[in-house]
Design a protein that fits this description.
The protein has 409 residues and is α/β, with parallel strands linked by helices. The chain is built from 16 helices and 12 strands. The strands form 3 sheets. A 7-stranded mixed sheet has the order 1-9-8-5-4-2-3, with helices on both faces. The protein has a 3-stranded antiparallel sheet with strand order 7-6-10, with no helix packed on it. The two termini are 44 Å apart.
Length: 409
């Protein structure tokens, strides 16, 4: 805390930025005790290295802060990592989705299959194109789009133009079956890999299966640029149009505008951080997997607790470590009381969100999504966890399960 003299100082914008640390900010909010939050094991924590800081500082000192050479380096490196020909950097995962759907020609009257159990940006991007999301239920074990339900939907709705498959929590969807279904019905296959950097299915990285895909670099992701996104594709026409749309409708060399575009560009500052983070992405994923395996071993066989699945052929990168419990709310409260951060991703099916009320969206049922919304809980799995943190999390879940064994759900 500050001294009495510092509290009397005037506070212009610069002063406020310097003095408002996390404890003061929490005191001002007045909702959460500072001592409690400081001791929490957080659900997520960005991993920022000295190399990351040096890369950003290099850009700051160059004066070339906006889109430029660092963005091009990041695009080239990321395309190579995913295994595609082209990558187009954007300002966020959401703007990547919006630009991609526009680039592949999704528009008014089109239907796009999306899962009802994902972050809202997936279906928002469809709606913002004037198209209609067709919500298709998930598998109970992977939380990803169910290929059998997808087959049913495409048979019933022959005018569907695209399937936007999500690799939720860092686990790849069943891309063999999904690729086969979409090819048989002649619809576009697009990938929302916002949470799945480095995830792979049968040795092939996500983002390289469909006609195109996107990634997000939000701070909770396995690689971050602060905010940022990336469109990936091996189709030169999709890449060319997406680049124009992201760059205000121009190729960046002149002030001639080929299309009505958007300013969705990534900055050099963000790209420099991304380049640095990409170099150690595999190492970060290895730590996440190690942490997840330790939690799996500790939680295996506990009554009422279902650890996450990793089906044969899937390489999970554990952006989230998500368990199921029929006593989810009680478990979350129990862990919170013991200083363990958790999160519910996601508490309701997307079609039920207030923003979608009154829209022309087909009703379910989506029984697996509805059940998941009642039962899922994400536990800390990020690389910043110590061995002691992991043991604390595991012991708390174990204690809850044993205490509540046999009690009605």
């Amino acid at each position: 805390g500050g001294s009495s003299s510092s509290s009397q100082r005037s506070s212009g914008p610069g002063e406020t930025c310097r003095s408002a640390g996390p404890q003061r900010a929490l005191r001002q909010i007045g909702k959460i005790p500072v001592s409690f939050v400081v001791n929490m094991i957080p659900i997520a924590r960005p991993a920022i290295s000295e190399d990351d800081k040096a890369a950003v500082l290099q850009v700051l000192e160059s004066g070339q802060l906006a889109h430029g050479e660092w963005v091009e380096r990041f695009e080239e490196a990321f395309a190579a990592y995913v295994g595609v020909r082209y990558a187009i950097a954007t300002s966020s995962g959401s703007t990547a989705l919006e630009a991609l759907l526009e680039a592949v020609g999704i528009g008014p009257g089109d239907e796009v299959v999306v899962p009802p159990f994902t972050f809202v940006a997936t279906s928002n991007a469809v709606l913002q194109r004037g198209a209609r999301p067709l919500f298709v239920d998930i598998e109970p074990d992977t939380f990803n789009l169910d290929p059998d339900r997808l087959e049913d939907a495409l048979r019933a709705r022959p005018n569907v133009k695209a399937v936007l498959v999500v690799h939720l929590y860092g686990l790849p969807a069943r891309m063999d079956a999904i690729t086969e279904v979409t090819a048989r019905h002649g619809v576009l296959l697009l990938e929302d890999a916002a949470q799945a950097h480095g995830a792979a299915f049968r040795g092939r990285r996500v983002g390289s299966f469909g006609q195109a895909g996107i990634f997000s670099f939000y701070p909770t992701k396995n690689i971050t640029t602060g905010e940022g996104g990336m469109i990936v594709t091996s189709d030169p026409q999709i890449a060319s149009r997406a680049r124009l749309l992201v760059h205000v409708g121009t190729d960046g060399t002149t002030y001639r505008y080929e299309v009505i575009g958007h300013n969705y560009r990534m900055t050099n500052i963000a790209a420099a951080l991304g380049c640095s983070q990409l170099r150690r992405l595999d190492a970060v994923n290895a730590v996440r997997r190690r942490n997840a395996l330790r939690l799996n071993a500790a939680l295996k066989g506990l009554p009422g607790i279902m650890p996450p699945a990793e089906p044969e052929g899937a390489f999970h990168v554990y952006n989230q470590y998500t368990i199921r419990s029929r006593r989810r709310d009680a478990l979350q409260a129990y862990l919170t009381e013991r200083g363990i951060g958790t999160k519910v991703y996601y508490p309701e099916p997307l079609p039920h969100t207030p923003a979608y009320r009154g829209l022309d969206i087909a009703e379910g049922p989506w029984p697996q999504t509805e059940r998941a919304c009642r039962e899922v809980l994400s536990l800390p799995v990020h690389p910043g966890l110590t061995d002691e943190d992991l043991e604390t999390v595991a012991e708390a879940v174990r204690a809850f399960a044993i205490e509540r064994a046999g009690a009605p759900a």
